[in-house]
Amino acid sequence: MQRYLFKNIAMVNEGKIEHADVLVNGERIEKIGPHLDEKGKVTEINGERKHLLPGIIDDQVHFREPGLTHKATIYTESKAAIAGGVTSFMEMPNTIPNALTLRLLEDKYHVAAQTSLANYSFFMGVSNTNAEEVLKVNKHKAVICGVKIFMGASTGNMLVDNYGTLEKIFRESELLIATHCEDEKIIKANYERLKNEKGLLSPSDHALVRDDNACFESSLAAIQIAKKYNTRLHILHISTEKEVQLFGNMLPLKEKRITAEVCVHHLHFTADDYEQLGYKIKCNPAIKAPNNKEALWKALLDNHLDIIATDHAPHLLSEKEGDYEHAHAGLPLVQHPLLLMLHYYNRGKISLEKIVEKMSHAVADCFQLKERGYIREGYFADLVVADLHSSTTVSKENILYKCGWSPLEGFTFPASIEKTFVNGRMVYGNGVWDESVKGHRLKFTP
Questions:
Q1: Phi, psi of 124 (to 5 degrees)
Q2: Residue 154 binned pLDDT confidence (cut-offs 50, 70, 90)
Q3: Judging by beta carbons within 10 Å of its beta carbon (0-12, 13-18, 19+), is residue 319 exposed, middle or buried?
Q4: Could you tell me the residue ranges of all domains in the chain?
Q5: What is the CATH number of domain 3-52+377-401+411-433?
Q6: 39-79 residue pLDDT tens
Q7: Could you report the per-residue pLDDT of 87-122, keeping only the tens digit for each?
Q8: CB–CB of 306/259 below 8 Å?
């Protein structure tokens, strides 16, 4: 059984930074303290000038398997995730076929068990017609992260606009319900109006088609239903200043029934970037005007928004080209979320403690993950060693996504991910990989 001893490393955990020694024994953290002196076989890691963080938990990714494996697979994207310090992920159901039955959902778990280098969980999908199947998941709430509802257009049969179905799921589901909130009627009306006015739409028009009102009205509707039934609701990828007012910060996260996520691309890009990046940054919900970015940062830092995620959604570059109607929506991001937040730490925008809170601790608390998300004795050793004195430049040569590109190409981060441990095993270290053991299925406290 492998044992590691981190010596005198700056541990970022539970609101503070302190130098400590950390002993990993097998899959778990055994001891944390000053000047640990371990006898027997142990691999010592010099922590001087390095930081130790709990592994990042990304609660929203699209790894495209099954059915869209020309873009990505669970193996390729989990590998990219680990290179970026993401040790656990929760993946969305809009694959082909859509994960709308327990059998199809378990098929994805089977693939992950064979191929995922990171820990994993998968959301159960909802359509207008599968409510009874969705509610069967109540019996599996210890091993499934949640139920996903698209309240806006999505792949296949996953737009849920039947309020009878919505009410039934919100009323009877015992799992967390995660929603993509955009009002389809508003989106269609905006599209028709702009099409009539302009003829051909440009990339920047995406922020006007999928505008603030489309997001706000849908989020408001979801919150109203959740409050009616006291449902555990988590709204994904908040992208507008207007929506922030719908969420509170008076309660600690563990006591909130309604929580919200913000994604790294909405914290980094604005509508001004369409001019340079075009459809590379087309995504749903859209990247919008700069005032939204600033409002999202403020809401994140004062705890109106609870979690940072990626909504990693890879497409081939050829699928991002063409006209407005045919350019696919989605960005590949899971290799760089921690580095991007370390860039903003370097600029004084966010503290290291807050990064760890929003990318690890809060995700574990929000989903009631068992024994992950913190550096604690007895917890799984999902750990990241970051070097804040060594830079990383994104290039085609070091991108691990199967799609082979990133909207961050050419960007230099003022930090690097040196090592990533998953369940006590150093899966990634200084460019060297150990793929001999796969990640674990995540477990939750019902």
A1: -80, 135
A2: low
A3: middle
A4: 3-52+377-401+411-433, 54-367
A5: 2.30.40.10
A6: 889 999 999 999 999 999 999 999 999 999 999 999 999 99
A7: 999 999 999 999 999 999 999 999 999 999 999 999
A8: yes
Q: What is the pTM of this model?
A: 0.97
pLDDT surpasses 60 at 123: yes
Cβ(45)–Cβ(384) below 8 Å? no
Residue type, 91: E
Nearest to 315 by CA among 69, 27, 32: 69
Q: What φ, ψ does residue 345 adopt, rounded to 5°?
A: -60, -45
Confidence of residue 153 (pLDDT cuts 50, 70, 90): low
* 401, 408 contact by CB (below 8 A): no
- Tell me the two tokens of residue 71: 């873009």
Specify burial of residue 89 (Cβ count, 10 A radius: 0-12, 13-18, 19+): buried
Residue 39, Cβ neighbours under 10 Å: how many? 5
> Which architecture, in CATH terms, is 54-367?
Alpha-Beta Barrel (3.20)
Instruction: Quick: pLDDT tens for 414-433.
Output: 999 999 999 999 999 989 99
What is the chain's Cα-based Rg? 21
Strands 56-61 and 86-91: what pairing? parallel
Structure tokens at 267: 């914290």
Q: Are 119 and 441 in contact (CB under 8 A)?
A: yes
Q: For residues 266 and 273, what is the distance between their CA atoms, to the nearest angstrom? A: 11
Mean pLDDT of 11-15: 98
Distance (Å, whole) CA 232 – CA 178: 9
CA atoms of 116 and 38, how far apart (whole Å) = 32
Interatomic CA distance for residues 167 and 266, integer angstroms: 30
Q: Who contacts 424 (Cβ-Cβ below 8 Å, separation ≥6)? A: 2, 4, 24, 25, 26, 27, 28, 380, 381
Determine the Cα–Cα distance for residues 317 and 336; give it in Å rounded to an integer: 18
